[in-house]
Input
Amino acid sequence: MKTFGRRRRQDPFADLPSELQRVLNAAAAPGHASELTGLEAATAAFTSTTLLERPVSWTLAKLIATPVAAVVAVTGLTGGVALAAATGHLPGPAQQLASKVGAPAPNSAATDEAGSQRSATATAALTKPTPGRCNAVTRIGANSPAAKAAPLSGAGCTSVKAPGSQRSETATATLKDKPVKATKPAKPAKPATSVGKPETTPADQPETASTGKPAEHPTSSGSTHSNRPASAGKPVTAGKPDND
Amino acid sequence: MSPDHHTDLDAAVLRAKDGDARAFETLYRDVQPRLLRYLSTLVAGDAADVAGETWLQATRDLHRFTGDASAFRGWVVSIGRHRALDQLRADRRRPVQPWDPAVLPDSGVEQDSDEALATRRALALIATLPQDQAEAVLLRVVVGLDAPAAAKVLGKRAGAVRMATSRGLARLRETAGVTPEGLPALEEA
Output
């Protein structure tokens, strides 16, 4: 009776000639500066998406737009405003208005300047008037079919349509013109529209430990480099990893 | 890639899911060059646009993703691949296969470094392979996926990916030293 031995799987990257090693090394070289020109726009889009999808209480606590705070205060949502005011995260005029409607004075007026700049950039990327274009997509990929097909809405933009996603509407909508729709029924209503030109002075991003959430099961094999050539396939690390 | 870097990227995935923009930047710096290079073999000059759309979708759907940094890489590239194929269907174009220096991805930088030029030439050489072999080689070498993860991106079995990788490398062995007309040999770059 024949028995079939298990064929040993050969490593395709073993014993490559030097010329081919050089090709593969070049293909897998660390990222070049020219390949990271979309970093700022992508980060701005990420920041805006993250802010819009947060619960209202979180958003108010990290308020970035003075007109939003003013309207919220006037409409009587003092809980969130009180929190924001108490933590000193409301800009000056809004802080004064909040005080008038009964919010406590802040203990500290500290704000995160770096966070202000980051969110200013994010909002600038989204709200900079660019006729005929979704601003975030303009910075990231202006000539894509999705960008060209995106409906126009003045200085803001409404969507970059992703298959099956309704979040594109909220992801790219600005705080400027339209009320932000809640994407989940369980979430409370979003703040009302901003008044006037939004000034983005955001608070700092929450520093969450990596163990803040339960460990998540990997969905694919954890070993990614077991079959990579020893010398070819250098990690494509564009720039410094910044993981603090 | 060092084990520490693996760990850092894994942590960055978790923090990015929690809204940490710095963590997102870290992931972008790791994935974007790989994504661009992979997409360049599918959509050539439109790779940057497709990559931008990919990140928008990945950002929106990040809350649904679970896995480590390697899985994240494969996930983003998978989104990019779908976007690229959608664009090809819309444009009714075929992926670039013949060596055509005119369609090397435009970096947008006036003067590429020598390393960047070498990368572009290497990618153009890989792009001469049949599509399935080019994709397999890129996913394995450039994106850094193992065979099962690459198979997941391509919607194939791991064995098919291994076969395509082997065949692609065999072809490249023959052509790595060949000089297309008008271009210097890679070893002189």
Remarks:
- The first strand of chain A starts at residue 152 and ends at 153.
- Chain A touches chain B through 87 residues (CB under 8 Å).
- Chain A has a mean pLDDT of 55.
- Residues 51 and 220 of chain A are 29 Å apart (CA to CA).
